[in-house]
């Protein structure tokens, strides 16, 4: 039996009567009060998420000489110090090994933040690619991470930690002192709301969590609400919407791939681009409150054209929403589809992303 | 008016010939936030333990079974547009279906509240 890892906040979660479930090898809080209440709190105020399960790597050394640029779908050398960039690790077939964010901590120092599931595989690949004096350190489980997301997140952090927080640009970060230790705060997230990700020592994460929750504007939220929030924005979830058999072209995420330089998977992607795509990611709205579930078929005029990879009832739209992969002929905006399985058929329409457009993300 | 319960966590409140059906607080706790209720058409006849209607929550889709045989005479249209009422008041405002009971003798296959409470203890 595999032992699930727990974050330093486990006692806090059980104190809140959280419902726990395995996620990416970790035992994580799925909900506290209820998924819809937590979702709403994030859209209207500020929700606090334990994201200590996410993988964190530190890479030290001259980037150009480190030999790792090829492993990423995007350029590392043009990320300014104090900024982060989203993209992929790909395999030789162009399939997505993981989606991740790279932080440029210093001219010769990067932090890579990855999903919990593929974390060990990611680190092994990066470690194997490092050349010369460059070296990597897997800090997963040793460095903590909290996400504070919602329209009031900035006000809360400014009040606690000072006005400097308010100067952090979208996809930028600052190194600050929080509770007497060095921390890193980035203006990033996975909810579509104004939000921050806070990286700190394991030793201060419990007091930090408690201090944030002392503010009446902040409530804890679990992975259930997080999944709903990200789906309303059309953000892909690794393991559901993205995997090693799916390329960034199929996922409609080629803007996070820089073809102007060499990288692992480039040849395969160029071949796929030239040959034309067999399937593409689509977003659809269900014409009722019913939920399309992961694994449902997608049908165009009674013929199966694809599969649902993510689905939920959207509280903001008041209907079912989902994403999946279909043949390009079924992907045009406005196409009428059916989604379902034996005994269930839901009418749906292909729509543009994001589903939800009123978020405070860039405010 | 007496409440009776099924092992699948439906309740039925019997008032003469009429039975009001819903799901229990325990069912709601397990399901989480309810997002959709599919109600039967009035006039439909159901047998005891047959699928009566369906409910969806943020976590899963579940069937609701008829605690007793009967004919559907009314449905709670309020929960179609506000399914969260089932969460907030599962044994009150969040009722689902009213039936005309076909065979009152079938009640002997159900649990009373004390028996259901014991049954829940056995599950945990």
Summarize the structure.
Chain A has about 375 residues and is an alpha+beta fold.
Number of helices of chain A: 8
Beta strand count of chain A: 19
- Total of domains of chain A: 3
What is the fold-level CATH name, i.e. the topology of the largest domain in chain A? Answer: Gyrase A, domain 2
Specify the CATH homologous superfamily of chain B.
Answer: RNA polymerase II/Efflux pump adaptor protein, barrel-sandwich hybrid domain
**Percent helix range of chain A:** 10-25%
Q: Level of helix content of chain B?
A: 10-25%
The number of helical elements of chain B comes to 4
- Provide the CATH superfamily of the largest domain in chain A: Probable tRNA modification gtpase trme, domain 1
The first-level CATH class of the largest domain in chain A is given as Alpha Beta
Which whole number gives the mean pLDDT of chain A? 96
Number of DSSP-assigned strands of chain B: 9
Which structural class fits the helix and strand makeup of chain B? alpha+beta
Principal-axes geometry of chain B comes out as globular
Uncertain spans of chain B: none
Mean of residue pLDDT values of chain B: 95
- Give the tally of structural domains of chain B: 1
CATH domain class of chain B? Mainly Beta
Radius of gyration of chain A: 21 Å
> What is the string of SSEs of chain B from the N terminus onward?
EEEHEEEEEHHEH
Cα distance spanning the termini of chain A: 46 Å
Structural features, described:
- The complex is a heterodimer of chains A (363) and B (124).
- Chain A is α+β, with helices and mostly antiparallel strands.
- Chain A folds into 3 domains: 10-54 and 141-233, 2-Layer Sandwich (Gyrase A, domain 2); 56-138, Aminomethyltransferase beta-barrel domains (Alpha-Beta Plaits); 278-351, Elongation Factor Tu (Ef-tu), domain 3 (Beta Barrel), CATH 2.40.30.
- Chain A is built from 8 helices and 19 strands.
- Chain A has helices spanning 10-15, 35-44, 63-66, 119-129, 153-161, 202-214, 223-233, 266-275; strands at residues 19-23, 26-31, 46-50, 55-60, 84-90, 96-106, 109-114, 135-138, 143-149, 173-178, 181-186, 195-201, 218-220, 280-286, 297-300, 303-314, 319-326, 336-341, 344-351.
- A 6-stranded mixed β-sheet of chain A has the order 10-11-12-9-3-13. Chain A has a 6-stranded antiparallel barrel with strand order 14-17-16-15-18-19. In chain A, strands 5-6-7-4-8 form a 5-stranded antiparallel β-sheet, with helices on one face.
- In chain A, strand 10 and strand 11 (181-186) form a beta hairpin.
- The termini of chain A are far apart.
- With 124 residues, chain B is an alpha+beta fold.
- Chain B has a single domain (2-123), classed as OB fold (Dihydrolipoamide Acetyltransferase, E2P), CATH 2.40.50.
- In chain B, 22% of the residues lie in helices and 37% in strands.
- The termini of chain B are far apart.
- In chain B, strand 2 (10-15) and strand 3 form a beta hairpin.
- In chain B, the strands form 2 sheets. Chain B has a 6-stranded antiparallel β-sheet. Chain B has a 3-stranded antiparallel β-sheet with strand order 4-6-7.
- Chain B has helices at 25-31, 78-81, 84-88, 113-123, and strands at residues 2-5, 10-15, 18-23, 34-38, 45-46, 51-57, 61-65, 70-75, 97-101.
- The model of chain B has no long low-confidence stretch (mean pLDDT 95).
- Chain B has 4 helices and 9 strands; from the N terminus they run E-E-E-H-E-E-E-E-E-H-H-E-H.
